[in-house]
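Supplementary notes for students who missed Thursday's class. We covered one full example, reproduced here. Read the sequence, then the structure, then the short commentary at the end.
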Amino acid sequence: MIKKICVTVLVLFLLLPSWSQAGSFGKDDPSGVPGQWYVGTTPSSIDTSKHPILFVHGLNSSSNTWWNENNMYETAYQNGYETSFIDLYPTKNMWDNGALLAQKIHDIYNYYGEKVVVVAHSKGGIDTQSALVHYGAYPYVARVITLSTPHHGSQLADLAYSSWAGWLTGILGSKNDATYSLQTGYMSYFRSETDQHSNWNRTPIYTFGGTKWGSFGSSLYWGGLYLRAYGSNDGAVTVNSSRLPYATELKVGDWNHSTIKEGSSTFHLFKNYLNESTNTTSGFQAQSVMELNSAEDAGSLVRGGEYNGFKDEKVLIEKGVESVTFDWISSNPSPSLSLKDPSSKDISTFKIKEDESEYFNGAYHHTVTIQDPTPGEWTVEALSHFKDQYLLQVSFGHSSVNDVMSLNIVQDKIILKAKDTKLKLKHDMTIEYYKDGKLKHSKVKAKNDSLTIPKLGEGVYNVTIDVEGAIDKNKFNRTFIKTVYVDASGKVFGN
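Structure (token representation):
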């Protein structure tokens, strides 16, 4: 089929994929206009057995993520593949992006005259599945490869919309349609709408997951620190969330959320799935590799809000904790912070680092880790001469208390279980209720100390449960954050 060029949406590479000679492609960052798509330099010899590749970016990103400080495009070119790239809305949900992507996939199919293989990073995999299943783009795609896609949502999105973090993320601009849709409760609803759709198995899906979130100071370190209570992760997405029960998992490796999309990291592992001869058919049934565990350990304490002047936060540390990390996340890098042990002695110095991740980009982390902390009440004190927003995340490493509680959601009931009969618990539940992405009711308290989700209507219920307890007079406190989605009929979705 003769290849047609759509002038309004197509930019051709004129030179080889050397970033110092990239011509208009990539110069002054022209990408980022939603709906525009680009075609890479055509290899000198095109192998008709190779599908063209369409690369789809993720949350708060753009098409240049595949070539700026990334050799994915160059690697694909050197291996003889035709390539294309698209810009979607960086902060919109899977419905808006799915509809847009479906239209453009059809155009790209017409350009090449054959099906493409989609390689999608992070939320781009959800946008792609939305385009295929809900907006009918499946006839134009041979298969999909997802690189650390949060198919079941991200607990970092839950944290961003929680009652403790809302002050900070509101200032940072992290609250948007995309983050809202990535809350685990909403994604449970999306999974039900998608996995039961008549188009769910029209296109084979292959997944990758990562387990590395870097050392202290790396952009994904703090996300990994929070997510470790939910299992292995890459600093933004857990391995469990990267999986689908009907997809084929190609590999879980020691990549972080950024390196997993680099050509030198993963291209050689999915290269064989870009070819027309790959033995897959529509209507496939892939072997499940899914091992979801909905209960996390109780490894974190979360507090947050807004203050002007002096603010302190009390933290109970139980006996036997091997280490504890205090992470004061602020909208400014300048608050005066001190950490006092149970004897009121000043301990250590906070290290400051700016956040470059997807959910708290632009915030400043003030972090200190204490090994073998003295049991008792510790205090973080902050002094600021202007209004500031903060989120305190305390991570307890290797404590027996982390395993004595579990939290699950069954319909409209929150089940907080104590695995030790000696464990005494007090809890406080706070709910942020959102409809269509907008906050309708803030800091809703459960009635009569109940853990039943109130009936406020259709939308996302972001649930924060603060727990204070004791076991053999050993006091501790922890925080659980969960989300559920309630549809128009009152059905509850959530893990």
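Commentary. The first helix runs from residue 72 to 78. Residues 1-30, 281-295 have pLDDT under 50 and may be disordered. If anything here is unclear, bring it to office hours.
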